[in-house]
């Protein structure tokens, strides 16, 4: 040991070792990991921000693995995630962001519906991600000028934000990756300019020209002309979640019409029926092959063996749409979704919310298929004319006036929305 080293204090030696470690880190090649592997190795969920704090575990959200790893799929430029509630899309992009910061740095921009959403995501998601995950907290700068309301400059890359109603916020410097959240809350146009998604994507034109741009769009759908539905239709490949039956082992696409629950008891109204299903958990999935009953406790093992399957595997994967309804998630039970579905019957507003939020579908797709025969079939079950059921509390007549005719319906309504 040199005489100079002997004269240094313990604090000075520790400082020198840190400088040496930081210097060597600059020349160390990044780990060869996929985003899902990086998340499982380094991502930390803090208590108070997650119902399951601790290290990230892919087994809790197996459907997110394929979405996260798409960024490293050869030939793929962008993904569109048409999602239901409780799917974990926000956690997916956080893991992708953490991976990029640590292993594949490049300027990244987030585009949100409005300025309030930008503030919320910066303070509630991005900054906590940086401080709570030790692997990437080392990239955080101590200079206050590197940490503003809309931009964070890290040791490896820059993170910027913009919102859909402000063309100026979307006119930032070149970006390698652009991540959009809740696109169906975006206006059709950004002021007098093009739609906000096109403006945001234009920020990555320089990287797109050399094949290094990546786009990630996610939203709960609203209508058939909403941003996320239109963008999904334009994708070159469409993927849906498939999983094997725990009884017969046959793989199948997970569909809403295979989710079953016990029928209403005699005299049980819709509200009580929904409450009973939620309380008892009496909902299950029925295998389309063996018709076996797949209970909620089978679900984790079933979904752990699941995979995203393309409708047309031979189609180009340049743009991929992932359809992720709530009923494939382990964060919400089939009984909880069934409760909402039962309550929504007969209430157009609640039904739209249920279809959008849990089935991950736009309502108009179903409304457009409604025929006059549907109403004729309903009317055929009515009782004698001019006589209301004993449970009637109110009678409403509603009409749709056309240019040369009108359509009307008279319905009796009772407790709990019964009709």
- Rg measurement, Å: 26 Å
The overall pLDDT average reads 89
Question: What about the largest sheet?
Answer: 10 strands, mixed
| Straight-line distance between termini | 90 Å
Q: In which range does the helix fraction lie?
A: 25-40%
Our count of helices gives: 16
Q: Give the beta-strand count.
A: 17
Strand content: 15-25%
- Outline type: globular
Poorly predicted regions are none
Q: Which class do the helix and strand fractions yield?
A: alpha/beta
How would you describe this protein?
With 419 residues, the protein is α/β, with parallel strands linked by helices. It contains 16 helices and 17 strands. Strands 3, 4, 5, 6, 7, 8, 9, 10, 14 and 15 form a ten-stranded mixed beta sheet that branches. Strands 11-12-13 form a three-stranded antiparallel beta sheet. A hairpin with a 4-residue loop joins β16 and β17. α3 (35-42) packs across α5, α11 (270-280) packs antiparallel against α13 (334-344) and α13 packs antiparallel against α14 (348-359). The radius of gyration is 26 Å and the shape is globular. The termini are far apart. The model has no long low-confidence stretch (mean pLDDT 89).
